[in-house]
Design goal:
The protein is an all-alpha fold and 429 residues long. The chain has two domains: 1-103 and 113-216, Up-down Bundle (Growth Hormone, Chain: A), CATH 1.20.1250.20; 233-428, MFS general substrate transporter like domains (Growth Hormone, Chain: A, Up-down Bundle). Helices cover 77% and strands 0% of the residues. Helix 5 runs antiparallel to helix 8 (186-210) and helix 11 packs antiparallel against helix 17. It is globular and about 55 Å long.
Length: 429
Amino acid sequence: MGHKGRLFGGALGFQNIGDQLVNPKTTLPWFINAIGAPAWILSLLVPLRESLAMLPQAAIRPFLLKSGRHRLLLLTGTAFQGIACLLMVVAVVIAAGAGWEHGSPHEQGDSQASGPILLAGLTILAALTLLALARSLVSLTSSDVKGKLIPKGVRGRVTGFATTIAGAVAITVGVLVQLIKGDLNSWGYGIIFATAAAGWALSFVLFAVLTRELSASNIDKGISDDEDSEPEQHTRVLTALKEDKKLLKFVTVRSMLLVTALSPPFIVTLAHGSAKTLLTGLGAFIIASGLASLLSGQVAGYFSDISSRITMAGAALAASLLIGIALALHTWIPQWSTVALPLIFFGISLAHAVIRVARATYVVDMAEGEQRTTYISVANTAMGVILLIAGALTSALSAIGPMWALGALGILGLVGAISSWRLEEVSLG
């Protein structure tokens, strides 16, 4: 990968470690449940984290193109993600001050939850909002920096290397949590959140070293007045999607790949009423998520460099088949679900990790120069809106039952697999 590839992979790796430790699908919901914060807070975690990391990017893009301040925005976003994790530590302190330890004096979702408990929950939401907004800066700038510093043909492996690092750390944390049966006290959650902050601090250092020469190169240079006057530099999201058919097709396919992002909570819901075993609990799900990252990292990076579109298609197909198996087992052989559903959760997490690497590689290989910034910002902003709509639709279906939501997502994944296969080939092969 070369020196720059290792630096970039390390910076992304420490960032991914933070993501694993403050995951809105695992660690944060467990903390909210443990302290007895209102249940409505749980429903906001994933939408806030995912959509706010995407929606601001179209607004940021004109400033980035005009100023060329890739390094400033990259380092600012990285720093504020670490600060957000420290704010989560503050939430733990607030909850501990209310007398919480090894759980809450209130039942989860209790409307009579004390002021400090409610404040702790709101602090988590505020921290997650800050983290997501800061991530939007990093997402917009890091891919462009990677495209200009890391040569085509190894970009997928760099991203895969970062995913592997995070997976190994997550497995370690999951095992430790599982050894204490997931019964974390305030010190346990505080250490997890502080460790996430440390991960982003290390990511900041590596990004700073990697990009220190950018200000002296054309990588961190703003566009000229002539370039700024080109119509595409002022194109709004809808106009960009209308005028660029290649970009529109990629965004459409990417929206279908949300099957792996939206389905895990419903798998957990199906498993919630099952008998408790060694495969259930916070530690088990952290291990599943980490193991998926560990296994997918280098493999997904390698295959993405060969053909990112085929890699996306295969992962989407696998996720849909796993959802079909989950529905069949839960309906006809429910006694097997205790063991099968956690394993299916792992499989879908693996598919999700593969898709993340493949789609990131595809969009970087598809675009060239400043076009990458345009593609990434427009695609991510569109996905932020699509994610909110998809979340609302699946929530409505889940009101009937999680099986309905999973069935719809399984069909969406099949369509996404076919559509991914039909994308234009942009990899070296």
